[in-house]
Design goal:
By secondary structure, this protein is α+β, with helices and mostly antiparallel strands. The protein contains 17 helices and 11 strands. Strands 1, 2, 3, 4, 5, 6, 7, 8, 9, 10 and 11 form an 11-stranded mixed beta sheet that branches. The two termini are about 45 Å apart. This is IS701 family transposase.
Length: about 425
Amino acid sequence: MDALEVGRVRVKLGLFVADVFASVPRKDQRAKSDCYLRGLMLDGRRKSVQAMAARLPDGNEQNLQQFVNQSTWDPVPVQRRICERMLPLIDPVAWVIDDVSVPKDGRMSVAVAPQYCGALGKQANCQVAVSIHAATDTASCPLQWRLFLPEEWASDTARRTTTRIPPGVTHREKWRLALDMLDTLAGWNMSPPVVVADAAYGTNAHLRAALADRKLAYVLAIRADVTAHPFDAEPSAPARNGPTGCRPQPRYRHRAPSVAALATGLGQEAFTTVTWRNGSRGKLRSRFAAVRVRPAGKAVERPVKAAASAGQGWWDGVLPDCWLLAEWPEDAETPTGYWLSSLPADTPIADLVHLAKIRWRIEHDYRELKHGLGLDHFEGRSWPGWHHHVTLVTAAHAFLTEQRLAPKAPTPVSPSTKSSTLSRTS
């Protein structure tokens, strides 16, 4: 947005800030949040504090630096208020788990480490943040963020002290951070219609089990080597060894095939063409098949066996079933994509495909957050500063989303134009 466009929405922005940042106790801090949001929304290649202060007529670099990096205002109530405003407005069909990486120089920025950097497509020195987004085909917004703390930071007292990482924060796997965010949102009485994630999360059986424990439906991408039994496979037990011998545990007598083998074994004739949305170049369609399967593996079996043993004292060996959705494009020699879903058995395949493909919307979010609103332009190094900046970027994104979704006022018609139109029609 240029300065004129920002000026046109100053009143609306002021009302937005007054509501979203009402938990910030000091009036001058709320004024700085308004200033910071305008700086994020203004055109400009860099959205660092120095660059934004130089572009804003009321910008004060020292004040903005102090507001973001040293102030003690709590970003959590602000994040909650953003969610309370955005969820009813967007009315999401799914919540999407994803993560974003920011390349960094040096080793003193909080949580920076050599790790896989999606922005560069390789191992690099970067920060990684896990996020949850509410999404439809037409709108989306971030709901929560967690900064991933690599293992090397867990016991690095010097860097933790310098970057002001709270004592209780330690290394947690990304999928656990995603569950933490879902639990936080549940504590605010917010729950997802469906949870969606890519294969980096969906392949993890512990995540799938945790979502099932929380009674959250999911459509999760998985790798081709994930194993599953056919739906009609049945466990069996060998004969008991004498009247006093131990009763053998029922189990599946054949090794579970990979989902790639199961999908290929269906044959191309089992795949049907499904259109999931309109793209910039027309309708997006491909061929899909959906079958019920029973995911296998020790990570799947252990919680099921433990729950059955605790409830009834024994387990019949039957693994829970779910959907396996597979994609096999016409020009491909083998299937190219796989998803597991806990949605009901009567769910139409078109709905499964639509949810499996909804992640594209989050890439749109990341582009706007990074390139338009300066998500990755933060130059501070502290834990509080990072969370303040990300919360402010999320607020700016929420405000712009509200403006896009607001009903458009009809264009006024001048009396002369109206008269000429009537004379032509008569």
